[in-house]
Amino acid sequence: MKIAIVEDDINMRKSLELSLSDDYELKTYKNPIDALKELDDSFDLIISDINMPKMDGLEFVKTALEQKISAEFIIITGNATLNKAIEALRLGVKDFLTKPFDLDKLCEAINRAKIIREKKANKIKKEIPVKQNGFLGSSKELENLKTIALKAAKTNVSVFLSGESGVGKEVFAKFIHENSKRANKPFIAINMAAIPENLIESELFGYEKGAFTDANSSKLGLFELANEGTLFLDEIGEMSASIQAKLLRVLQEKTIQRLGGTKLINIDVRIISASNINIQDNIKNNKFRADLFYRLNTIMLDILPLRQRKDEIIEIANATLNRICNEYDLGEKTFSKEAIKVLNDYNYPGNIRELISIVESAAILSDENIVKDSDLRLNFTNNNKNNINDLEFELIKEALKQEKDIKAASKLISMSEKVFREKMQKYNLGE
């Protein structure tokens, strides 16, 4: 706790300094004018006399408050009057002590101020809103994932996002970044599958002038551009073995070296990575380094497909419809009951990305203010596989609901325990 003491009496000032210096960080001033030049929000408490030269103690408190100094105040005085006590309380002073006073009384007042300060800090902390950018709908499954993501956001650990294409992995990456201490620093994203292998290294680490043909000037890599912020590596399963080795070295040593350079550059970057393929299978097949994977997935979020987050479908559809209508001045449009049923029944092999595309197209091409089921261009040819997956998912889920024991649940649907456990893992049903 940082305390300022404003007292013109040198003996009282020195006495307070000697009594409190072992337990608190102190700064003393012999008059209010000097104090006001240095006081800021780093101070938790100000102990001030009333009768001082150049400025009255109560006037000092009033001026400090006008300067938005947020510290608590304790007033000490050898000439107390009821009017001054009332004025002090009106200004928000929490304690008013009359000289001479016991040191224990002052310590009690300081502790009360400390408790008030902590309660204010906790209230402010609780009132900081969670940034929800990117999420267009809500479901129990989504909220559970967001709870885990928020816990991860408060730290600097690496986060690994798994899930099918289009489930919103980059939205989650931005959500973690925007609710972290790095929120005011850069968020840089790269799709590892979209960059030719011979260019990935220079994209990640940058290069020096003359490092290769056409390198006419130096270029910062994504690690440097994301310094103190977050680097989102999407589709990491597509990384070559050589890039995996270099990325592991960066994560271990927290330094990078530009292509053609000799200087090691310190970096402070939070890594969030993602993949729509089963990295564990790649590890078993020696296509992905296990040691790198363990560095990347301190916390893993397995994002379920949209067909298992049905509650979000209509919310996302309505939000997208409103956005497109506003963006292209299409007037106010709504979905018919039949369209809503079709949207809810479809299985979305392309997940949220596909749903948004379907609604955008329907909004633009529909001739009326009511978007009908006939306006929805749905790709039912890909739905059979997903229907089977959904039936299998529901079957496993129902068996587990009826039988808590896995062996009994697998027997209930005439499935081997080994296959049943594999299906549980596939559908994220856990044990």
Helices and strands in order:
Blueprint: E1 2-6, H1 10-20, E2 25-29, H2 32-38, E3 45-49, H3 57-66, E4 72-77, H4 82-90, E5 95-98, H5 103-127, H6 140-153, E6 159-162, H7 169-178, E7 187-191, H8 197-205, E8 206-207, E9 219-220, H9 222-225, E10 230-234, H10 241-253, E11 255-256, E12 265-266, E13 270-275, H11 279-284, H12 290-296, E14 299-302, H13 313-327, E15 334-335, H14 337-345, H15 351-365, E16 370-371, H16 383-402, H17 406-412, H18 417-426
Parallel strand pairs: 1-2, 1-3, 3-4, 4-5, 6-13, 6-14, 7-10, 10-13, 15-16
Antiparallel strand pairs: 8-9, 11-12
Helix pairs in contact: 6-7, 13-15, 16-17
What would your notes on this structure say?
By secondary structure, the protein is an alpha/beta fold. It folds into four domains: 2-127, 3-Layer(aba) Sandwich (Rossmann fold); 140-302, Rossmann fold; 306-378, Helicase, Ruva Protein, domain 3; 383-426. 47% of the residues lie in helices and 14% in strands. It has 18 helices and 16 strands. The strands form five sheets. The chain has a five-stranded parallel beta sheet, with helices on both faces. Strands 7-10-13-6-14 form a five-stranded parallel beta sheet. A hairpin with an 8-residue loop joins β11 and β12 (265-266). α13 crosses α15. The longest helix is centred in the first third of the chain and has 25 residues, at 103-127. The protein is elongated and about 85 Å long. Mean pLDDT is 86; it is low at 124-128.
